[in-house]
Amino acid sequence: MERLNIVTIDGPAGAGKSTVSRDLARRLGFTYLDTGAMYRAVAWAARRNGIDIEDKKALSELCNDLRLGFSGDRILVNGQDISSFIRTPEMDRLSSAVSKVDVVRKYLTEMQRDLGREGHLVAEGRDMGTVVFPQAAHKFFLTASAEERAKRRKMQIEYRGEEITYEEILTQIEARDLADSTRSIAPLQAAPDCTVINSSDLTVEDVIAKIVSEI
Ligand code: DC
What we know:
By secondary structure, the protein is an alpha/beta fold. It has nine helices and eight strands. Strands 2-6-1-7-8 form a five-stranded parallel β-sheet. A three-stranded antiparallel β-sheet has the order 3-4-5, with helices on one face.
């Protein structure tokens, strides 16, 4: 199989994937694809339309009618920029729930492959190296301890002016890890041919330097 000029970065919530992927894409002159934002957009649209996440038929119809798009780093649903609505604890939970549904995964997987057709992509998510782009040239799995990820997440949330306790975040992170890694389709796991990087004791710069040296 021909290897694609794509870098995949998978890993659990809060491991620093977005910061690293965005920066890496800029340095390489590649496009950055935030697939978590796509699951969040579907979750947002489902919520907006009063759709029950258990209702597969309604989710399938939603996906058929949905016009998802990007404008730079912003994500659009039917032309509306929804980027500032999708990073809430409610959307953390709902996006993880819709990501278990096969019709949603099929719809987004096809769209992601389409966006990757020309290569030159840094694709970030949970199943980029395992399912969506198994033929990617460079695959990484970025992880960190749940405690470290909870600390980072707390800082992000507080930066937005919201309040949350460390214990609450840790519980949420552990629940989402469990849901994402035990679902039956495309569970969160490291591809056999990827490089695993544990970022618990590394700075963003250290992680990027490691990735660049591997590439
Ligand atoms: O990376 P994130 O936290 O924005 O992702 C939100 C949810 O979407 C996450 O809980 C799992 C799901 N997801 C997925 O199943 N597959 C992907 N490629 C990306 C995200």
